[in-house]
Amino acid sequence: MSRAPLPLRDDERLIFALDVPDRVQALEWVDRLGDSVAFYKIGMELLASGEYFQVLDELARRNKRVFVDLKFFDIPATAAAVIKRLAQWPVSYATIHGWHPAMMEACAAANSGDMRLLAVTVLTSMGRADLAQMGIDREPVEVVVERALAAQAAGIDG
Fold first, then answer.
1. Measured distance CA(29)–CA(81) in Å, rounded
2. Catalytic residue check, 41
3. Which of 41, 64, 71, 84 is catalytic?
4. 81-95: b or e for each residue (b if 16 or more CB lie within 10 Å)?
5. What's the CA gap between 103 and 155, in Å, rounded?
6. Residue 34, Cβ density class (10 Å: 0-12 exposed, 13-18 middle, ≥19 buried)
7. Among 40, 45, 47, which Cα is nearest to 62's?
8. What's the pTM?
9. DSSP β-bridge partners for residue 94
């Protein structure tokens, strides 16, 4: 069963995307924004730097909230193991791919902390032609609704 969203203060309703290539640039943004931003998304580009968890730790040290946007997808046991380990970090939200029911169920079951899981149903860069190349001959909105309902049924939080 999915859980309610985490309560957010007014200053946490804006999530700033730290889509930068390294720790130095990420922390420059955090310093520049100061108290005006309390919630940050960190994604794949920063992960490739090798400094991802250093930034996550620094955000936590500064009492910032963290949204891990890595869109996890793998066999259910592996994805669940990642979620179990990630739940040990100070993470408010994390993304997984939202179209494999068994994987979503495993991730939801492994999420023992306060972290909320968000299912990415269809990437915003994808249109009908992209879906057709994947063997899905429907409008993106139809696929989004179907996958969102499946994610909810699997116990994903959003």
1. 32
2. no
3. 71
4. ebbbebbeebbbbbb
5. 11
6. exposed
7. 40
8. 0.93
9. 68, 117
Structure-token match 């299912």, residue found: 119
Q: Kindly state the tokens that stand for 122.
A: 């269809």
- Tens place of pLDDT per residue across the chain (158 aa): 678 888 999 989 999 999 999 999 999 999 999 999 999 999 999 999 999 999 999 999 999 999 999 999 999 999 999 999 999 999 999 999 999 999 999 999 999 989 999 999 999 999 999 999 999 999 999 999 999 999 999 999 99
Calpha distance 139→31 (Å, rounded): 42
Q: Is 138 left (phi over 0), alpha (psi -120 to 50) or beta?
A: beta
